[in-house]
Design a protein that fits this description.
Chain lengths: 121, 257
């Protein structure tokens, strides 16, 4: 079945098609792009980097390196020695704690010669 | 119910006994310390007023100086009496009833009575002449009582080491029935050694006691007197430690097996 040929008669449409064909319609767009070219490129670079980071993170999470933990070592159990304490150890401590220094208590110094005759040094 | 009340009363009584012993001891010490600090205060005041009087011998200054001297005499002799009481409390707290030490305790009792009497006597002083007469008489009479502080000080240590001897003897008496009979030869030797060493320590203590009672300390400097006695007490202490170590060894190796 033959495709019917469409004929455009609308003058506005004809004008628009002419502009598209000649590239006249893209001139303001090109001007705007040239004006903000470096900003657009920088934003694009940052955006690509962020996407790269996100993708990298996702990949690293999925491919986690296995951690090797050493096998648990049993806690050393102290050897319990059954020490028998004598009932007389306290007496030994008392003897040890005896202060052998003399005088204990200290003998205070008193003036035995109290009168109004001698001069006081 | 009766049993319960007994269970409460007996520990309460024991606690009361312990606390009361501590209180008596603390009282004697704090009484002496308080009285001694009073004496120091009064002595400073007396020194200043005496200086004033010697520089400017007016009747008013004389009166003030005599009053200050009287107060100082009173607090001095009360401080000495309290010091004697403090030494007595230290000697008696051990409850050993060690008879050879009795003359020293008696001399402390006598010193306490002397100082209390002098503290009262000094309050009759009115003039500087009476003050001089009092002090001259005091300087002669006080010598043996002041010396009793030296011997009393050593006596307190003796009563402590005597208490250790008594407790050590009790410990041996407790262990002996626990040992398996008949005693093996090494054990028999060790027990005999303990008994002979105990007797030797007793002899050393008796010698020290009789020495401090009999020796003439007139020309002996206080420092060298105490150093000498301290060395002897240290030696007795080391013998007692050796003795108790030996006893503990027998207790652990023979009485507990």
């Amino acid at each position: 079945m033959p495709i019917p040929k469409i004929e455009i008669t609308n003058p506005e449409a004809i004008e628009l098609i002419r502009k598209i064909k000649s590239g006249e319609i893209f001139i303001p767009l090109k001007t705007w792009f040239n004006k903000y070219k470096w900003i657009i490129i920088s934003v694009a670079v940052v955006f690509i980097l962020m996407i790269a980071l996100v993708i990298g993170k996702k990949l690293s999470e999925n491919a986690r390196t296995p951690t090797f933990t050493p096998p648990e070592i049993e806690n050393p159990v102290p050897t319990t020695t059954n020490t028998i304490k004598s009932d007389f150890s306290s007496l030994k401590e008392e003897i040890q704690n005896l202060n052998t220094d003399l005088p204990d208590p200290f003998i205070p110094n008193f003036d035995n010669a109290i009168d109004l005759e001698n001069t006081i040094n | 119910m009766k049993l319960l009340s007994k269970l409460f009363i007996v520990p309460l009584f024991i606690i009361f006994l312990c606390v009361s012993t501590q209180l008596v001891f603390a009282d004697a010490r704090s009484d002496y310390e308080r009285q001694y600090s009073l004496y120091r205060q009064n002595y400073i005041e007396y020194s200043i007023l005496k200086k004033d009087y010697l520089a400017n011998p007016t009747l008013d200054n004389q009166q003030k100086a005599v009053l200050a001297a009287k107060q100082t005499l009173q607090t001095r002799d009360l401080a000495k009496a309290n010091y004697a009481a403090f030494l007595l409390s230290l000697c008696q707290v051990t409850n050993t009833n060690y008879a050879p030490i009795k003359p020293i305790l008696d001399s402390l009792f006598s010193a306490k009575a002397f100082f209390l009497s002098e503290a009262e006597k000094s309050q009759a002083i009115v003039t500087p002449v009476q003050l001089v007469a009092f002090t001259q008489s005091y300087l002669v009479d006080v010598v043996p009582h002041d010396r009793s502080f030296r011997t009393g000080n050593v006596a307190c240590k003796i009563s402590e080491i005597v208490r250790f001897q008594v407790e050590s003897k009790n410990a041996l008496d407790i262990i002996l029935p626990k040992l398996a009979t008949p005693f093996s030869t090494p054990l028999q030797t060790r027990i005999e050694d303990l008994q002979s060493q105990g007797n030797k320590i007793n002899d050393d203590i008796n010698t020290l006691t009789s020495d401090i009672i009999s020796e003439d300390v007139t020309n002996i400097d206080e420092d060298s007197y105490f150093n000498e006695k301290s060395v002897i007490i240290k030696k007795i202490q080391s013998l007692q430690l050796k003795w108790i170590d030996s006893l503990i060894d027998i207790d652990l190796n023979y009485a507990h097996s």
